[in-house]
Amino acid sequence: MSGGMKNLAKETIFYGVGSVLPKLLSWLLSLYWAFVLPRISDIGVLTNFYAWVALLQVTLTYGMETGYFRFANKEKDPEKVFSTTFISILSTTLIFFVISLFFLEPAAFVLGGTEMKPHWLLLLITILCIDVIGTIPFAKLRFKKRPIRFATIKILNVVLTILFNLFFFLACPWLQSKFPGAFSWFDINNGVDYILISNLSASVIQFLMVSPELRIKFIFDKQLLQQMLKYSFPILILGIAGILNQTVDKIVFPWFYPNNDFAFTELGIYGQNFKIAVIMVMFTQAFRYAFEPFIFARNRGSYDDKQSFSDATKYFIIFGLLIFLVTIGFIDIIKFLLPIKYHVGLKVVPIVLMGELFFGIYFNLSLWYKLTDQTKWGAYISIFGFILTIAINIIFIPAYSYMACAWASFFANFIMMVISYFMGQKNYPIPYNLKSAGFFFMLSMLLFAGITVSYACVDNLWVRLSISTALILLYLLVVIKKELPLTEWPVIGNYLKKNNPTDI
């Protein structure tokens, strides 16, 4: 492994801790909900809600976070850029909030019929608007290079959300048993309300903590805003298409599942099992935070290190396949992150995992249009992926339920990956090691088949886990032999070179 790859690996771990830790805590909290909420349909409602939040957050910020960074570095007065950006976001968010108030009941019915309660939407929209308004103050912290304060507030937000949830779902039932009169208001069947109230409380506190960044003289520059909107609009389109690729199945599922009474129950099963695949999403995101600075740093001026880009993608595939094998190999243990009533949906896990791996590879391959300033192609490919995803969902959800969602993600991400590869080789050729990628993919699929056969033929849990462990170790041994020789490892490599110099 080259020095550049070692630095990239270190940065991936560093950024992973800073960016993924809040998501990891939120992920654990969402798994906890399945154990405390009495109805699977409640999980379906929350799955649908937070898919909408992801889409609306991208829409309501309309690329202005990136626009702020671009113009704050470009203009002589960064405070004017911040002020103009914040006023724009605040104005459009308040307009959205007021309009939403007039359509709560019809919107609730459209989203989920009688299953959806209007006051849930009110809480959700309030949370969304507070978080959107806080986006630019958080961006200012990043611009001012204050990562510790930024990370502290973000992590504290998640910690507070967890504590509020624990109050409602652990403390309140106990207090109700001790003081029934004082806690007669508590009803576990209102679990969705308590989750949204917890989220709202934490969001308010988070905004108050970041609000000192608003202590400036506000100036609104209309001409500057027009320039920023022109710059940010393509980012908005790319962002919407990208987030829809990840969330559209959870948004449209209640509309196309034929049995309205069980639509949110099925979505709840899918949503919780999808969360197991978040392991791959976190790995991809951690790698992404390190990869973008890495590729731009190695593309300055006449310096163009295409071999490093190729190596980075190769190692991403190798370790992504390892995550796939470990997750599937130890699914007998991992599945207990979910209550038993959700285990019927475990069959989507390998499909979603591989789909997310394809998406991660697609992100790696996307450097060609970033380095050649042809970002419009990123939007085109994402839009095509979205059309394909929604088409598969609409056609197959009525017959195959959430399995259609899993396969839609798989095929859309795969096709986006293939398209990006061939277009990249035409516009910005990189010597990707397809032979190595193909070898490790085939090896992992053979080992996956072995794990699957052991599940079907072996009843003893410990025997199955032993087989899985042996197959995963085999994969690791092949990786070490072919791509990560022990002589290049820290400490171990120095020891081997010292004691066996003639063999090196």
Secondary structure elements and their pairing?
Blueprint: H1 3-36, H2 40-61, H3 64-74, H4 78-102, H5 104-112, H6 118-133, H7 135-143, H8 147-178, H9 191-210, H10 222-256, H11 263-276, H12 278-297, H13 306-329, H14 331-334, H15 349-365, H16 367-371, H17 376-400, H18 402-427, H19 434-457, H20 461-482, H21 492-499
Distance between the termini: 15 Å
Low-confidence stretches: 299-303
What's the mean pLDDT score? 83
β-strand number: 0
Beta-strand residue percentage:
under 5%
What is the count of distinct domains?
2
Order of helices and strands: HHHHHHHHHHHHHHHHHHHHH
- Structural class of the helix and strand makeup? mainly alpha
Write down the Rg: 24 Å
Principal-axes shape call: globular
Helix-residue proportion: over 70%
Query: How many helices does DSSP assign?
Result: 21
Overview of the molecule:
This protein has 21 helices and no strands. The protein is mostly helical and 504 residues long. It folds into 2 domains: 1-20 and 277-498, no CATH class; 37-232, no CATH class. Residues 299-303 have low confidence and may be disordered.
Keywords:
mainly alpha, 2 domains, 0% strand, 504 residues
Task: Summarize, please.
The chain folds into two domains: 1-20 and 277-498, no CATH class; 37-232, no CATH class.
